[in-house]
What does this fold into?
Amino acid sequence: MFKQLNLYISRQATSLPRYIYEQTLQALCGWVPSIVGIALRTLVYRKLVQMEGSAAIEDGVRLRFAGNVRLGRGTYLDHGVYLHACPGGIQIGPESLVMKNAILHVYNFRNLPHAGISIGARSLIGESCILRGQGGITIGDDVYLGTLVQILAVNHVFHDTSRPISRQGITAQGISIGSGSWIGSGAIILDGVTIGRNVVIGAGAVVSKDVPDYAVAVGNPARVVRNLQAEPLEIHDKERLVVY
Ligand SMILES: CC(C)(COP(=O)(O)OP(=O)(O)OC[C@H]1O[C@@H](n2cnc3c(N)ncnc32)[C@H](O)[C@@H]1OP(=O)(O)O)[C@@H](O)C(=O)NCCC(=O)NCCS
It folds into this structure.
């Protein structure tokens, strides 16, 4: 029982005192709704996370290893966001938004050297996205992720048929997404992939290989169908395609 309790705490915070501290502040302030709650957490949570200027944190945001979370000026965490920032940490750049129910989990309990999640400035993580950052995830500036995007910087090893896959360890190479890119809803980005700048990934794509700058890639497995520099998009039907 004691061993299990110890294990549980070690998955939630860096130490027992820190666990009690983080849980107490979140229990006292984490539930308060409306702009009053946001103002309260802007004041109090700077003792919990590393915060530059003011960050807006809605009620019901769950933070673990909160001392490893760094929030830039003007970041926004929507209701139900879960940041689990074990060693390697989570950095969210200025004016970036993490929308409802997104889960950012570094899940580094094996001292993985490159673990962590880093998001640049003015980026948007859509509703219910899941980022697993064991191998390291780097997202540039002005990157938009649609809803339900999964970025999975980890794989299980599965070559040894005499042992369960769950006991064969993992590989974790890392994923990077260049500035200005747009990842369509439901896309899955696999470990080891580098996505260039200003790339479009179609909705539902499974990206298993690198995608160069200015490419549009769609499908499972994702294939480049267009390069926006070599073949710029023409807007044939201006009445149908209204640009806001
Ligand atoms: C990729 C996308 C942007 C369209 O880009 P585009 O360069 O205009 O592509 P086109 O519409 O000319 O399609 C090119 C080809 O790819 C196919 N295609 C387009 N999107 C696709 C997708 N998501 N999955 C699979 N195939 C797709 C088209 O059917 C077409 O195939 P064809 O050449 O055999 O006819 C769009 O289809 C898309 O997926 N948008 C994401 C929407 C979204 O997630 N919105 C959430 C808001 S954040």
